Amino acid sequence: MPKIVDHDHYRKELLNQCSKLFAEQGYGSITMRQIAQGLGVSTGTLYHYFPSKEGIFIQLIQETCERDVANFFAQAPSAATLQERLTTLMTFFLKGYKSYQQKMLLWVDFYQHGQRNAAENPSYLGQFWRKTRDQLMTYLELPAERVDFILVFMDGLLVQCIYDHGHDEAAWLAEQSELLIRLLTAK
Known about the structure:
By secondary structure, this protein is an all-alpha fold. The protein has helices at 7-25, 32-39, 43-49, 53-75, 82-95, 97-112, 124-140, 144-160, 169-185. The protein is elongated and about 65 Å long. The chain starts with 6 loop residues before the first helix and ends with a helix.
């Protein structure tokens, strides 16, 4: 009897394994051949499931971002006050900030290696930003410019963690988060 393969499940398994390879080597440094070798598959198999390295990375962005947002909303309680909703958001962010930082650095690498000049291609990172912003606008009950500010603030925290400030990073991040919440909830 021929082996029955769930192609969608197998594609997702390959994609999850690609995440580690991109994290270890960077987007710009790894080739399709190296990805195939790292996955233990032929390049033909890899091309069967993904049209290109860019295609792999874009699907990886889509799936991991959708998963992150779904995880947040699955655990985010209905909160009566803005302060409670902001605290929920920042607590979730702080729990996963190392992972988000790694993703952001990979996205910068991806951008540097071709996306910044690809005017004919839609901005996948921009699409993710807008979708996340729209969902957070609904949850936080805030206008777009305030949610943009929160997202920019969070991205800034990720960049600041690259620098060695000589302090307890987790405590510093918690302090910055509390400051953001106070700023946004001040009367």
